[in-house]
Amino acid sequence: MDKKETIEGFYKLSRQEKIALLNLSNESKKLLYDALITEPKIAGIIDELSENTISHYSFPMGVAPNVWINNKLYTLPLVTEESSVVAAIAKAAKFWAAYGGFQATVLGTKKKGQVHFFWKGEKSLLINKFDALKDFILFRIRPYIRRMQKRGGGISNIELVDKTAILDNYYQLDVSFETLDAMGANFINSCLEDMAKSLRQFVSCDLEMDENLLEINMAILSNYTPNCRVKAWASIPIADLNRYGDQLNISNLASKLEHAVAIASIDVGRAVTHNKGIFNGIDAVALATGNDWRALEAGAHAYASRKGSYASLSKVAMNNTSFTIELEIPLAVGTVGGITNLHPLAKIAMEILGKPGAEELMQIMAVSGLAANLSALLALTTSGIQKGHMSMHLSNILRQLDATEEQKEAAKNFFKEKTISYSEVAEFLKSYS
Ligand code: MEV
Question: Cα separation of 281 and 298, whole Å?
Answer without folding.
Answer: 16
